[in-house]
Amino acid sequence: METAFLFILVFGFLFLGVPVAISLGLASVLTIALFSGDSMSSVALQLFTASQNYTLLAIPFFILASAFMSTGGVAKRIIRLAISTIGHFRGGLAMASVLACMLFAALSGSSPATVVAIGTIAIAGMRQVGYSKEFAAGIIANAGTLGILIPPSIVMVVYAAAVNVSVGRMFLAGILPGLVAGLMLMIAIYVIARRRNLPAEEWKGFHEIIEGGKEAGWGVFLIVIILGGIYGGVFTPTEAAAVAAVYSAFVALFIYRDMGPLTGEPWVLDHRGPRERVGFKAMVYAVAFFFVWLILSFFAMGEAGVTTIGLRSVIGLVGVAVILIAYPLWRGEGGLAAVPGTLASGLPVWGRNLRVMGKGFFPALVHDDTRKVMVDAGKTTVMLMFIIVNALLFAHTLTAERIPDAITDLLLGYGFNWFTFLIAVNVLLLIGGQFMEPSGLLLIVAPVVFPIAMELGIDPIHLGIIMVVNMEIGMITPPIGLNLFVTSGITGMSLVQVVRAAAPFVAVLFVFLIIVTYVPFLSTMIPNALMGPEIVAR
Fold first, then answer.
1. Closest Cα partner for 222 from 211, 361, 230, 156?
2. With contact defined as beta carbons under 8 Å apart, do 198 and 192 qualify?
3. Which among 279, 309, 285 is positioned nearest to 295, based on CA atoms?
4. d(Cα 123, Cα 130) in Å, to the nearest integer?
5. Is the C-alpha dihedral spanning 366, 372, 377, 382 positive or negative?
6. Which of 139, 111, 24, 179 is nearest to 471 (CA)?
7. Which residues lie in coiled coils (predicted)?
8. Do residues 345 and 281 touch, judged by C-beta distance below 8 A?
């Protein structure tokens, strides 16, 4: 009785158009009030406990990092890097768009943000070289879904908080499936490109890859900071999210200078001569190498006192000295004797930029661009956290009424095994994903299916990846597929046109879902290799 009442209320409210968060929270409160032995004070206690969840604190920081990266011009630099890498293949611009989505996904953790940031530039570029609008839109709508599969992923954080598994394991588990999904989309594009004789970009050589890498390096290095920091033991996933938010703001405001008070301010003024530019670049590369070395060497050698900060610094300074001598010799004139003068000529450029950054620091914190990013991120955070807190109350109600246990006994009584159970989970999520936002649906379904999966011996991390992939497909299936609406908005196409454009590539993701579901090795290999097998206490 209690089970039927709870689920009828939830889906009844959703059918009437009540927001997901209110539907979950109100149904839970009414069930507790009318049927449960718990007092109503348990509602307040559960809401307070859910809001104090340390893992969930990562979500607003990842959202803020995504907002700065989406606004700060990182996307166009990533696209240049992707095109220089694989653009010379047949259909290369389309495949480069998928690669760009994969790279941006590793920065943002958000699927809609990936579609907007990459799609706005990539679709226009594909149209200019002869791709149809429908083909370009279908690629971006599907590739954008990788934003929630390739770590860091906000949806993975939500799943980890809902069923109390490791966020770090979920991030590791998403790496290999994310690469496989991106590769499958690229293969599908290449096959179509060969049949339609789609254009290939000109091969510009390894020099263009290096230049693209240097431009995108500041943004892409965020991947190293987040994942390297977590698995190097420097900080927790929540702390990694906070670091990512600060780093993203710094890069957008002071390095790329695509927003804020320094917008359009060049690093080197036009009147500076070649010698000054060479001296400045030599010092930039040397400083960048030193900090990158300190970070990467800690991840590789900093455990258990293998190396000290002093030893790593000395090794780094040797590398700095090599760069400060080698680069002026390579790019400058006058030989070894001219190196000190070349480096000295770059100091005024450094001084000017440090003054500009210092003068613009506090104005950047309150600039209109910064304020807009903060407000947009705040709105998204409030919406998502309100859903999560109410969904955790819903999960508490399920547990208090022992509803998952009853469903587990029912399914086992009907002879379900792990194979047929995963079919049922996929069908349930694919249908639900057509009508609900991913985080809300996951928070409803995960507490119900998780105990059953544990009883059937399914790895909880594997189950999480299956659910995330289902959420991906839900974002590109009507009528509520969020990526469809975002793609429609940036292309000006109708929703029906976007659905038709995305359909061939959705079939690729369906095949990928089957592979992920029944080849658990893809999801569990990396986390088990680096962190050992998951221990589940029933």
1. 230
2. yes
3. 309
4. 11
5. positive
6. 111
7. none
8. no
Amino acid residing at 379: K
Residue pLDDT, tens place only, 148-196: 999 888 889 889 888 888 888 999 999 999 999 999 999 999 999 988 8
The dihedral sign for the CA sequence 118, 119, 125, 131: positive
Q: Hey, what are 453's tokens?
A: 């999966």
Amino acid found at 104: F
pLDDT tens per residue, range 225-274: 887 777 767 778 888 889 889 999 999 899 888 888 998 888 888 888 88
Which residues, including other chains, have CB under 8 Å from residue 101's CB and lie 6 or more apart?
114, 118, 140, 143, 144, 146, 147, 182
Distance CA(399)–CA(395), nearest Å, equals 6
The one-letter amino acid code at 346 reads G
In Å, what is the CA distance from 463 to each residue of 10, 85, 325, 453, 512? Answer: 24, 34, 53, 8, 15
Distance CA 352, CA 370 (A): 23
- What's the pLDDT tens digit per position in 10-64? 888 878 878 878 888 888 888 888 877 666 777 777 777 766 777 778 888 988 9
Other Cβ atoms closer than 10 A to 333: 11
CA 279 to chain centre: 37
The confidence score (pLDDT) of residue 534 equals 64
Question: Per the omega criterion (within 30 degrees of 0), is the bond before 152 cis?
Answer: yes
Q: Where are the beta strands (DSSP E) in 83-194?
A: none
Q: Encoding tokens for residue 160? A: 């980890």
Alpha carbons 526 and 424: distance in angstroms, whole number:
27
Q: What is the DSSP string of 245-312?
A: HHHHHHIIIIIS-SSSTTTT--SS-TT--HHHHHHHHHHHHHHHHHHHHHHHHHHHH-GGGSS-HHHH
Burial of 204 (0-12, 13-18, 19+ CB in 10 A): middle
**Residue 121: DSSP 8-state:** H
Please give the model's pTM, rounded to 2 decimal places. Answer: 0.85
Cα–Cα distance for residue pair 248/71, rounded to 1 Å = 10
Nearest to residue 177, comparing CAs of 471, 462, 474?
A: 462
- Contact 139/98 with Cβ under 8 angstroms? yes
For every residue of 437-492, DSSP letters joined together read -HHHHHHHHHHHHHHHHHHTT--HHHHHHHHHHHHHHHTTSTTT-HHHHHHHHHH-
Q: Tell me which amino acid residue 534 is.
A: E
